[in-house]
Each structure stands twice: as C-alpha cells, then as structure tokens.
Amino acid sequence: MEQNQNENREKLIACAKQEFLEKGFAKASLRKISGDAGLTTGAVYFFFHDKEGLFGAIVDEPLSRIMQVLQTHFAEDAEEDLRSYQHQNGDHDAFAEQLITAMYADYDALIILLHHAGGSRYEGITERMIDMLDAYYKQLAARYAALFTGKRVNRYMLHWFSHVQINAFVHLLEHEPDSEKALEKIKPVMDCLIEGWVKYILEDDRPAG
C-alpha cells in the first residue's frame, strides 16, 4: 500500500512537471495532471492539498539545495580576512562546482521555478534572490569599507553586482542545459565578477554637499 502511494505521488509530480513547463502554474490543469498520471484529481488533494502544494513538491527541494550552498558560502566569507584578501582566478571554483551541482540536480524544476511560477507564492523568485544577495553584500561591504580610511560602500555598484551575479546564473540555466558545460562557462564569469566587486564596491567618502 505504501509503495503504491509513493508511486502515485511520483507519477503526479512527473506529470505536473510537464504541465507546468508547458502552461505555467496559473494555467496548469489539475485534471490534466491527474489524468496523465492515471489518477483522479482527488489524489492531488490527498498528497499535496492543492495546486500550490503540488508546485512546491517540485521546486522546494531544488531551491533548498541552492540556499544551503549559498548560506554555507556566506558563512565562509564571514570568516575571510578581508584586509589580506587578494583575488586569484579559480579562488571560487569549489563554490561554483557546488552551486552548479545543486542547480542542475533537477534542471526542469529550476526552469519551472524561474519562468513558470506566475500566480504562485514563488512568483518573483529572481528578485527575491537578488534582495537576499544584496542584504548579504551590505554586511560584507560594510566590513570591507571599515578597513580603509576615507572609503564608503558604493551602494549603486553593490546593488548592481547583486543583480548581475544572480542574472548570470539565470542566464546560464536558460542557455546551457548541460551541467559540465555550465560549470566550464561560469567559472571565468565568477572570477570576473569577484574581481570587479573587490575593485568597485568602495568609493571615496566625500562630504555631503
């Protein structure tokens, strides 16, 4: 009985992925999803409560994997000695590998999350990720600025880098479905962005007026 329930749940998720990819969350049909799975719509409500729950069953785990990689990286950055830090190409290759592995573990789910979440609670996930990165960078950049007399955080550049870094990975997902090729392509991008962040995140602290 339990095995059958697990199989039915996985059937619904597989069929829902296809439906969400084709029609997006708002236009996806639970009747079509359950019919394709050979089940009734009642099965959707039994396993997932509603369409939002079914959508979450697809995207929550991939999103959680990505967040775990980011949070671990942020914690490691918090321990970095910013005064002595000198960027070298390849410094963040291990982080790139971890993030690409997390992103490409369920490629279709990430595409659904990024482009087919309209009308769900996940709508605008890219902007929320940018806001999260921006909040983190505010803290990191403030620590960095405190090391240098006459310098302050360049808020425009900080927010710009937050946008560019998130959009770099979104662009990668959109244009490169192969994880090995994606990793090869993102490494020099990350080197470029990190070098730019270190160089441009601070500006002269000029008096107002």
What does this structure look like?
The chain folds into two domains: 1-49, Homeodomain-like (Arc Repressor Mutant, subunit A, Orthogonal Bundle); 60-204. The chain has nine helices and two strands, in the order αααααααβααβ. The protein has helices at residues 2-27, 30-36, 41-48, 51-78, 93-104, 107-115, 125-145, 155-175, 179-200; strands at residues 151-153, 202-204. The chain has a two-stranded antiparallel sheet.
Could you describe the largest sheet, including whether it forms a barrel? 2 strands, antiparallel
Number of strands: 2
Number of helices: 9
Kindly provide the radius of gyration, computed on alpha-carbon positions and rounded to a whole number of angstroms: 21 Å
Which structural category fits the helices and strands? Answer: mainly alpha
Which band does the percent of strand residues land in?
A: under 5%
Spell the H/E element sequence: HHHHHHHEHHE
What is the number of domains?
Answer: 2
Distance between the termini: 74 Å
Average pLDDT number = 92
The neighbouring-strand order within the major sheet is 1-2
* Helix percentage: over 70%
**How would you sum up the global shape?**
elongated
Poorly predicted regions are none
